[in-house]
Amino acid sequence: MPTTNDLAAHGAGIELSGLTKRYGDFVAVDDVSLSIKPGEFITLLGPSGSGKTTTLNIIAGFDQPTTGELTVDGTAIAATPAHRRGMGMVFQHYALFPHMTVAENIAYPLKQRKVPKARRAELVAAALATVHLGEYGHRYPRELSGGQQQRVAVARAIVYSPRALLMDEPLGALDKKLRDWLQLEIKRIHGELGTTFVYVTHDQDEALVLSDRIAVFNQGRIEQVGPADELYERPATLFVARFLGESTILRGDVTPDGIGVCARLLQAPGTPPSTGPAPAAGSSPEAGALVVRPERLAVREADFSPGPGWNALPATVTGEIYLGSSRKLELRLPDGSAALVREQAGSLSDAHGGDEVTLTWRVADSVLLPDSPDAEVVLT
């Protein structure tokens, strides 16, 4: 019986060097460089209009860069047509042929490559088994659910053992429960095949679940690349902190000795300057922002005094949101800014709307970043 081994492929190493794509005066991709390792699952994450899909289309060969280089396993392919690049592609809207059965849809790229009929049957059976649709080969797309159709699209893309599988918002049209399940299926398929996966999404949770690494796009450029935990725990920019997960962001001035407005307000007495290096001696005060994730924050009684290594601020609870397994508290700080606390079920505080409280967190659980006018997430 055909198995996943029939579809296993050596994952391609993909190198993007200074890629730029212009449409007249508009720069869709702006000097993007990225090294994708063989067999890696990398996600291009960002809001609409950030350049992630254009970058994927350049890799696929559907679009040509204005400048820059693209290589696969060391070979330049910018001039190679899409159908000769040996890459599979999965789109959001399936793109299945309605007049063909599931098996015929999956076999289509093999037929185009003149694979013998008997071998085609073996590979189609292996692809169907990989996506857990072994008994559905005789059905037509209209007889399948949206999730099943998307799995057929994945099977069609992997059936000829591509060196890279490119996926453009493949789960965007599905409901949340099905999307969550298919995320795990895609992760399983990647582990079984060993193929390089390049995945585009604007869904931060999806990126966190699936990826070996995430490249966060903003206004045509990559803001940061790294493993999910690194980007979440130690974002390099305010944009990354805002886009990848929820954050409380506290702004102030950082002076050369680290004892500026921000440090005075957020640093517990007697503890050393906390989150990142202070500006060089002799430099002028600079705007800074302290980033804390909501699950790292805790709410205590109004007269609570933290010990060494902890920060504290007075706050007022302005709202609460019940989420089943957790609860969010919305707070207002003395300067009028907002804070967000996530409490897990079973360890909820007694705080409710209107209460005066103390907001606390460990010094080590915050990140000090330069303030930036580009930090806002703009949807286009």
UniProtKB/TrEMBL annotation:
InterPro entries: AAA+_ATPase (IPR003593), ABC_SmlMolc_Importer (IPR050093), ABC_transporter-like_ATP-bd (IPR003439), ABC_transporter-like_CS (IPR017871), Mo/tungstate-bd_C_term_dom (IPR008995), P-loop_NTPase (IPR027417), Transp-assoc_OB_typ2 (IPR013611)
Highest taxon, organism lineage: Bacteria
Classification via Pfam families: ABC_tran, TOBE_2
SMART domains: AAA (SM00382)
One Gene Ontology molecular-function label: ATP hydrolysis activity
Listed EC numbers: 7.6.2.9
Domain ABC transporter: start-end pairs: 14-244
Keyword annotations: ATP-binding, Nucleotide-binding, Transport
One annotated Gene Ontology cellular component of this protein: ATP-binding cassette (ABC) transporter complex
PROSITE patterns: ABC_TRANSPORTER_1, ABC_TRANSPORTER_2
Xref: PANTHER family: SPERMIDINE/PUTRESCINE IMPORT ATP-BINDING PROTEIN POTA, SPERMIDINE_PUTRESCINE IMPORT ATP-BINDING PROTEIN POTA
Name of the protein: ABC-type quaternary amine transporter
The species this protein was found in: Nonomuraea cypriaca
